[in-house]
Each structure stands twice: as structure tokens, then as C-alpha cells.
Specification:
The protein is an all-alpha fold. Helices cover about 75% and strands about 0% of the residues. Helix 1 packs across helix 2 and helix 1 crosses helix 3. The chain starts with a helix and ends with a helix.
Length: about 90
């Protein structure tokens, strides 16, 4: 992977993480770096899942892929928030 691919994955992951955090109601008790990490993982997993379903490469904006990624990010943020709340 080239440096531009890594940088774009971090930027897209940050956006996905923030959008996933906005979907989860209430206040979350995780920091920004964990939100970005969750977003990066969600973006990568969401792309793989969308490719598996055959909806990753469409004409125009890949809305289904974005929805999968945001859904995974919101699940990740909620899971981390719950694990931190129990401590």
C-alpha cells in the first residue's frame, strides 16, 4: 500500500468514525483516537463486506458501502463505550 492510500484510509476512517459516533445516542466516553481507530477498522471491514455482496463498485457514490461502514462504526463506538462504562 502506498503512502497516499494509507493517508486516505486514515482520513476516510476518521470521517466514518465521527459519523458512527453521531449515530450512537447519548454521550460516549471514548477519546478521538479510538474513534478514528474504530472508523478505520469499520471502513476496511465495510469495504470487504460490500465487495462480498457485490455493491462496492457502483456508478456514482457507493451509498450502500457507506451505510455498511457507518453501521459498523456505530456498533464499534457503542461496544467500546459500554466496555469503558463498566470499568
Amino acid at each position: 500500500m502506498e503512502i497516499s492510500g494509507i493517508i486516505s484510509a486514515i482520513v476516510i476512517g476518521a470521517v466514518i468514525g465521527v459519523l458512527g459516533r453521531l449515530v450512537v445516542p447519548g454521550r460516549q466516553h471514548i477519546d478521538v483516537l479510538l474513534t478514528i481507530a474504530v472508523g478505520i477498522v469499520a471502513a476496511l471491514l465495510g469495504s470487504a463486506i460490500a465487495a462480498g455482496f457485490g455493491v462496492a463498485d457502483t456508478k456514482g457514490v457507493d451509498w450502500i458501502e457507506w451505510l455498511i461502514q457507518i453501521g459498523l462504526a456505530s456498533l464499534g463506538v457503542a461496544a467500546l463505550d459500554r466496555s469503558r462504562a463498566r470499568r
